[in-house]
Specification:
Helix content is about 35%, strand content about 20%. It is an alpha/beta fold and about 230 residues long. It has a single domain, classed as Spore Coat Polysaccharide Biosynthesis Protein SpsA, Chain A (Alpha-Beta Complex). Strand 2, helix 3 and strand 3 form a beta-alpha-beta unit.
Length: about 230
C-alpha cells in the first residue's frame, strides 16, 4: 500500500497575548544552561543551535521528513526564514486589499496554510509553541490518517497536537475562520485518538510560567538525545 504524505502546517501567526515577558513568546530562548559542563554538552548536541520555542518546534517537524509549511506574521518572518526555505513560509498580511485589518485567529491560519499546501495528501496542524513534541509523535498521527479522515495525538486520555486531516476535508479546512480552529470538523467526522507516551503533545507555551517549565524539560530532552 502506498502511504499518503501529509504536510505539517506550523501555526506561528498568533499574537501570544497571554505572554507577558519581553518579546514574542515564540522567539524566547530555551537555554537554561549555566555551568561549563552543561554548556559543553549542549555545544555537542544535535539540537544545540535550536534554542527558541519556534525553532525547536519547527526542528522536530522537519525531522519527520514531511513537508513543513510555517504560517506566520511579518514580525516573525525573519526568524522563520532561518529555519525553512522561503517557499515554505507563508506570511499573513496585516491588511487586506482594501486596507482593513486582515482576519486573525487559528481558523484563519489553518485555512491559509492548507490552501497554500493544497497539493498535500492531508495536513497535520501543529501550533508553533509546542517545542517538546517529538517527531515520532507527528509521524504516528500521520500514520493514523491512512485509515481515518481525522486523527489526533493523545496523552493519558487528554487530546493534544498535532491534529491531522485527510485530503478529502480540504474544502472544509480552507473555509475555517476565527479562533475556533478545526474543532467542529473533528467533532463531525470519525476521528482516531493516537495514544502516545509523549507529554509534549500537551505542553505549550502561553505564559512566562509555562516557558520556565518547558525550559527545564527542553534541556533534559537535548541532553538525553546527546547521550543516545
Amino acid at each position: 500500500m502506498t502511504h499518503r504524505r501529509p504536510a505539517v502546517i506550523v501555526l506561528a501567526a498568533g499574537r501570544g497575548m497571554r505572554f507577558t515577558g519581553q518579546g514574542h513568546k515564540l522567539v524566547q530562548s530555551l537555554d537554561v544552561a549555566e555551568d561549563p559542563a552543561t554548556n559543553r554538552a549542549l555545544s555537542e548536541a544535535p539540537l544545540a543551535r535550536v534554542d527558541t520555542v519556534l525553532a525547536r518546534t519547527v526542528s522536530h517537524a522537519l525531522e519527520t521528513g514531511l513537508r513543513v509549511l510555517v504560517v506566520t506574521q511579518a514580525a516573525l518572518a525573519a526568524s522563520v526564514q532561518d529555519l525553512v526555505p522561503a517557499r515554505d513560509v507563508l506570511v499573513l498580511p496585516e491588511l487586506d486589499s482594501r486596507g482593513r485589518p486582515s482576519p486573525v485567529g487559528m481558523g484563519h491560519s489553518i485555512a491559509a496554510g492548507v490552501s497554500a499546501a493544497g497539493d498535500a495528501e492531508g495536513w497535520l496542524i501543529l501550533p508553533a509553541d509546542m517545542p517538546l513534541l517529538r517527531a515520532s509523535s507527528i509521524l504516528a498521527v500521520a500514520e493514523a490518517l491512512q485509515q481515518f479522515p481525522v486523527a489526533y495525538a493523545q496523552h493519558r486520555g487528554h487530546q493534544g497536537h498535532p491534529v491531522g486531516f485527510s485530503a478529502e476535508l480540504f474544502s472544509e479546512l480552507v473555509d475555517l475562520k476565527g479562533d475556533e480552529g478545526a474543532r467542529r470538523i473533528v467533532a463531525r467526522y470519525p476521528s482516531q485518538a493516537v495514544d502516545l507516551d509523549d507529554p509534549g503533545v500537551l505542553l505549550d507555551v502561553d505564559t512566562v510560567e509555562d516557558l520556565e517549565r518547558v525550559k527545564v524539560q527542553a534541556l533534559a530532552q537535548v541532553l538525553a538525545r546527546n547521550r543516545a
